[in-house]
Design goal:
The chain is built from 1 helix and 6 strands. It has a 6-stranded antiparallel sheet, covered by helices on one side. By secondary structure, the chain is mainly beta.
């Protein structure tokens, strides 16, 4: 099956037309093969009281990895992601997400990502993307 990836600005993480979305902002550094995104969670993004849900953090990490590959001319989808949560985040915190490509061969792209609050690492991820 052939899949065409088309952007329509309704992405849950970065789409500005998605009223239920996170509206995260990302900037790609092509020369460094890296990406940086920012997100400020709201009270509706919590799991436990005053703690941002881990699924929101996972979505940000996933988006950073896939968006980077696409911007570098390698449209891909997530095949696998391992996340290590290290610290909580609270609504109102500015979360900075970063990702970089570690390796790319054939149809597989290896990526790493992190989410942080100031100097505190919230989560780190390693992923495998499948080129489309």
């Amino acid at each position: 099956m052939t899949v065409e990836l088309r952007k329509d600005d309704t992405c849950f993480v970065c789409g500005k037309k998605n009223t239920a979305g996170l509206h995260a902002d990302f900037e790609v550094e092509v020369a460094d093969r890296s990406i940086r995104g920012t997100f400020r969670p709201r009270p509706e993004h919590v799991g436990w009281q005053n703690i941002v849900h881990g699924g929101i953090i996972a979505s940000l990490l996933d988006e950073a990895m896939v968006k980077l590959a696409a911007h570098l001319g390698m449209p891909a989808v997530s095949a696998e992601m391992t996340i290590r949560y290290k610290a909580p985040a609270a609504p109102g915190d500015e979360i900075v997400v970063r990702s970089r490509i570690v390796d790319s061969r054939n149809r597989l792209i290896l990526v790493e990502a992190s989410a942080g609050r100031g100097t505190t690492v919230i989560a780190e991820a390693k992923g495998k993307l499948l080129k489309i």
